[in-house]
Amino acid sequence: MPRQAKSAAHPANSHADPPPSPGAVREVVLLAFDGVEAIDVASPASAFSKAALHVPGAYRVRIASPRGGTVATSAGFALADTLPLHAVQGPIDTLVVAGGEEDALRRAIFDDGAGRWLAETAPHARRVASVCTGAFVLAAAGLLEQRDATTHANACDLLAQLCPGTRVQRDRIYVRDGALWTSAGVTTGLDLALALIEDDLGRATAMQIARDLAVFLLRPGSAPQHSPALQAQADASARMRELMAWVQGHLTHDLSVDALAQRTHMSPRNFARAFAAQARCTPARFVAQARAQQAATLLRQTDWPQDKVAQRSGFGSVDAMARAVRQHLGQGLAQLRAAR
Predict the structure, then answer these.
(1) What CATH architecture is 26-212?
(2) Structure pTM?
(3) 3-state secondary structure of 176
(4) Is the distance from CB of 38 to CB of 189 less than 8 angstroms?
(5) What is d(CA 1, CA 17) in angstroms, rounded to the nearest whole number?
(6) What DSSP assignment string belongs to 290-312?
(7) Among residues 264, 317, 314, 266, which one has the least CA distance to residue 287?
(8) What is the residue extent of each domain of the chain?
């Protein structure tokens, strides 16, 4: 991974151009390079493009690269007709830097001048963001000094080592520090883009785009990088994985051991043993964690009263919800609501 380059760049938005006037098109520039992670580019591009359909003229999306033209992605296909960095003109509203593997990042930053270009350009953008290891390009441009930031879970330690002045947030899917936004690994670029859109166009538009893109859950930035549900599925059989996924979408149903055993056509005793062996937690704990995560999301993202949040999360009472949230997330209801 590249070392942090010396740069005189000011933090993002230190003297950025003003926000667009009502009705003005927001220019979104996605920075790609040879070896870029394809999803890091495609997810934000899709979200912003969908937003421009719902709110005509809200965004114009451009993909830029050091030399322009065709860019090879790590997925084995290419992005055609990218704009060369030197040709990026006019005010940039949102500048998003994608990530990639170590060698690709080194070439982009040092050989192709992406770090230097970003240092010169970022201060004039309204906001700057990175997806996954794109945070290292921001670091090379001097944009992460004394800032809160995150990156892929596997690269957080390295970011902290190379950038001791950065406050690395290791267990968040995205972090906002003023006009600087950073996200965790690959698919969290979609969560980041939806958050940026919500900041511009409101929650209703972000929710509509999430539905259009078949997003399962609009996650807050404080959501953990390592999903407990995904960890539980790691060593589970196909039947148990299917059940776990079903539980996530049916938290208000009867999720007792007897009910879940019936869905898997097993006796309650055999089901409880098999589930615990494969998921490394009891069915009751898995359900409680899922409901606690849902409650936390609703507390952060809605103004619903606590009894409605409890009901929509599958809890029988606010007290039961509070106990579960405290036990599994280590936070109180008031803390979560204040984090909106």
Answers:
(1) 3-Layer(aba) Sandwich (3.40)
(2) 0.71
(3) strand
(4) no
(5) 31
(6) HHHHHHHHHHHH----HHHHHHH
(7) 314
(8) 26-212, 228-340
3-state SS, residue 23: coil
What is the β-pairing status of strands 69-72 and 148-149? Answer: unpaired
- The CA distance from 292 to 30, in Å, is 35
Give me the CATH code for the 228-340 domain, please: 1.10.10.60
94-97/69-72 β-pairing: unpaired
- Tokens representing 116 are 């230097």
What six digits make up the tokens of 332? 């109180």
Digit-coded pLDDT (tens) for 273-305: 999 888 888 999 999 989 998 898 888 778 899
Tokens matching residue 335: 């803390």
Three-state secondary structure of 113-167: CHHHHHHHHHHHCCEEEECHHHHHHHHHCCCCCCCEECCCHHHHHHHHHHCCCCE
Q: How many CB atoms lie within 10 A of CB 248?
A: 17
CA-nearest of 147, 140, 133 to 40 is 133
CB 340 within 8 A of CB 301: yes
CB 257 within 8 A of CB 284: yes
Place of tokens 């520090």: 177
User: Could you identify the residue written with the tokens 């930035």?
Assistant: 221
pLDDT in tens, 163-175: 999 999 987 889 9
The CA R_g of the chain, rounded to the nearest whole Å, is: 22
Please, are residues 140 and 7 in contact by the beta-carbon 8 Å criterion?
yes
30 alpha-carbon distance from chain centroid: 16
Region for 23 from its dihedrals, namely left if φ exceeds 0, alpha if ψ lies in -120 to 50, beta otherwise: left
Report the chain's terminal Cα–Cα distance, integer Å: 34
Beta bridge partner(s), residue 96: 30, 129
